[in-house]
Amino acid sequence: MKGNKLNGITTTQSRERMEGEIKNFILVWTTVVGCLWYCHSVGKVVPSSLRRLSILPISCLFLILPLKLTSIHLGGVTSFFIAWLASFKLILFASAAGPLHSHPPLPLSRFIPLACFPIKIQTTPHDQQSHKPRINLATKITTLALLIRVYGNKDHLHPKFIWFCYCIHIYFMLEMLLALVGAVAKAFSRVELEPQFNEPYLATSLQDFWGRRWNLMVPKILHPTVFQPVRRASAPLTGRRWAAIPAVFSTFLVSGLMHELVVYNFGRVRPTGEMLGFFVLHGLSLSAEIVVKKMLPEKFRLPGVVSGMLTLGYVISTSFWLFFPPFIAAGADLKGCTESLAFLEFLKTRRLISPAHLSCPFL
Fold first, then answer.
1. 174-202 pLDDT, tens per residue?
2. What's the 3-state SS for the chain?
3. pLDDT digits (tens, 9 = 90+) for 37-54
4. Residue 353 to residue 363: CA distance in whole angstroms
5. What are the angstrom distances between the C-alpha of 96 and each of 93, 267, 318?
6. Is pLDDT larger for residue 130 or for residue 29?
7. Which of 36, 37, 17 lies closest to 25 in space, CA to CA?
8. Angstrom distance (rounded) from CA 49 to CA 28
9. What is the pTM (predicted TM-score) of this model?
10. What whole-number distance in Å separates Cα of residue 1 and Cα of residue 242?
11. Could you report the per-residue pLDDT of 269-318, keeping only the tens digit for each?
């Protein structure tokens, strides 16, 4: 398929790059598993006073290890799983805290998936959980298929509408990806796992959206690593009533920095600060919301339907302004399509698909 080009790169060249990327992906994850085996062993035999010196270097290694990968699908996901979640979980583990710390110690078969992936063992019995109506898998797949058709005509549509489609696309893809990861981890660890999304489109406030509905593993990791230490340090200066304000802002600041790292892995484009600005803005906005809630009697607050619409509108509009531009600047849409074509070419050379499948909605 040398005649099929995207940004001057043939799918054959892309396939060759993808093959190299897959080799690096295997190398990176082999290293990750080896490092986690080491940390698991250290946690059982090294005294707690020496555990930090033994484990924290691995956490630092996990910050840079995903830089070995350059693709969106492999590099971006690995950066989120390893440079962010796994490194923060190891920081907690080194301090005898967090999901990896347990008495008796977790078995290795459970330790590794809990360290690598955005999953959490369920503490509420399955039959006691509320069964809210959720968007089912068939609906999500159908919606994604429709979005792909929309992208094929994006030159004739308003850019803001396309970015709104990206919002839906990112949510569905993240939820499906994390559900798949959770299912695989559940098969290996044989435990019930908590879902990572709780219908974020039903959020009634920024506090509700970020703390209880969106990508729940992130706040559960940032809460003990950033929020709680900053709140304890701030309490003597601000008083316990207001100590949460600097803690919230610091949490969003760290989240913004980690998002900058993940986006950098997408395209190796110099950070513009827009992604950081998005999370700083939401940190300030959420802090202001907490202040208003503390000072305003509940009877004067907006109804949930109204505040919910305002919340989603604010999240989406600020995403258009600050969240999506770094992805577009990194060429995430075109690069993702190039990678998809390369993967299809890879399958075609092994006679697993027909050449007719080599098409891209972005072309």
1. 777 777 776 776 776 666 666 778 888 89
2. CCCCEECCEEHHHHHHHHHHHHHHHHHHHHHHHHHHHHHHHHHHHCCHHHHHHHHHHHHHHHHHHHHHCCCHHHHHHHHHHHHHHHHHHHHHHHCCCCCCCCCCCCCHHHHHHHHHCCCCECCCCHHHCCCCCCCCHHHHHHHHHHHHHHHCCHHHCCHHHHHHHHHHHHHHHHHHHHHHHHHHHHHHHCCCECCCCCCHHHCCCHHHHHHHCCCCHHHHHHHHHHHHHHHHHHHHHHCCCCCHHHHHHHHHHHHHHHHHHHHHHHHCCCCCCHHHHHHHHHHHHHHHHHHHHHHCCHHHCCCHHHHHHHHHHHHHHHHHHHHHHHHHHCCHHHHHHHHHHHHHHHHHHCCCCCHHHCCCCCC
3. 999 999 888 877 788 889
4. 20
5. 5, 36, 38
6. 29
7. 17
8. 29
9. 0.79
10. 62
11. 788 899 999 999 999 999 999 999 888 777 777 888 899 999 999 999 99
Distance from C-alpha of 39 to C-alpha of 42, rounded to nearest angstrom = 5
* Two structure tokens written together for 101: 């710390």
Lookup: tokens for 72:
């969106």
**CA distance readout (Å), 94 to 1, 49, 81, 202:** 50, 9, 18, 37
CB 311 within 8 A of CB 204: yes
- What values do phi and psi take at 235, rounded to 5? -55, -45
* The two structure tokens encoding residue 221: 């990791």
Compute the radius of gyration of the chain from its Cα atoms.
Answer: 22
